[in-house]
Design a protein that fits this description.
Length: about 280
């Protein structure tokens, strides 16, 4: 019998996690607060499967079978019989804690509760439950079907068994894992990209170099596939500003304080690719 996964949040990350998990054989229930959000999520999954089929990377029958393993709901109670739950909602600690508090009262004793947070300490989320030893971070990367990395984060009370189960899950859906053994805000990857984006934005803001030249320097000088300002546009200037703010609030390290330019871009709605304007015009 296939194991059951509940994914909470049908946005870009949640739908991507649902997609790769269904393809790996999990029975997936995808939950969001509105039918419209769920429709957008499943439309994105279907389009992604179709693209893989058209490129010969996935058989049409396998794509159909995977898509059939995904059900949707607006009811959080649907997670009650899940073996593994991944939360992938907006990066707000109070929202996440409330979801985990509710899930804790719904799911089976052995169920593992995972968060896809990119910056919020897992310990803060786990403290909302009576099972902090069974809470873990599973930080996937966007777009989930393409990106190979999953950052596993051990909270202060996460057990070895929970971490091992999270690794088995992530590797089972095709990801390579790194382990964050100390639950610092931003973990490894978000701290690295946040520090780089903040410094790149400061260089651009102060007129040291153009956005294009800063990104070219990182691509050709350091071998990065994409420059930090283009990465900010792809991720969302608002999302990165929020993430760096979370890290700065936690550790008070000035290198994570978003420059005024990034805050003003968010105020103006220049959020990157999704708005048509960020550090670049799209």
């Amino acid at each position: 019998m296939a194991k059951k996964l509940a994914v909470i949040g049908a946005g870009l990350m949640g739908s991507g996690i649902a997609q790769v998990s269904a393809q790996a054989g999990w029975e997936v229930v995808l939950r969001d607060v509105t039918d419209e959000a769920l429709r957008r999520g499943t439309d994105g999954i279907k389009a992604s499967y179709d693209k893989f089929v058209s490129k010969g990377k996935l058989e049409a029958a396998d794509a159909e079978a995977a898509f059939a393993r995904i059900s949707t709901t607006t009811d959080l109670d649907a997670a009650a019989d899940a073996d593994f739950v991944v939360e992938a909602v907006f990066e707000d600690v109070d929202t996440k804690r409330e979801i985990f508090r509710t899930l804790d009262g719904l799911v089976k004793d052995g169920t593992i509760l995972a968060s896809n947070t990119s910056a919020i300490p897992i310990t803060k989320i786990a403290a909302a439950t009576r099972r902090p030893e069974r809470v873990v971070g599973t930080h996937f990367f966007s777009p989930v079907p393409m990106m190979q990395l999953c950052e596993l984060v051990r909270g202060h009370k996460t057990s070895d068994e929970t971490l091992a189960a999270a690794r088995e899950f992530a590797e089972g859906v095709g990801k390579t894992c790194i382990v964050v053994n100390r639950d610092v805000a931003g973990f490894v990857t978000t701290r690295l990209i946040s520090a780089l984006v903040v410094e790149a934005a400061k260089l651009y803001e102060s007129g040291v170099a153009t956005a294009e030249d800063i990104d070219i320097a990182c691509k050709l000088g350091f071998g990065h596939a994409m420059g930090p300002l283009a990465t900010a546009d792809l991720t969302g200037v608002d999302i990165l500003t929020h993430a760096t703010d979370n890290i700065y609030t936690e550790c008070q390290d000035e290198k994570f304080a978003p420059p005024e330019l990034m805050r003003r871009m968010v105020d103006a709605g220049d959020l990157g690719r999704k708005s048509g304007q960020g550090f670049y015009r799209y």
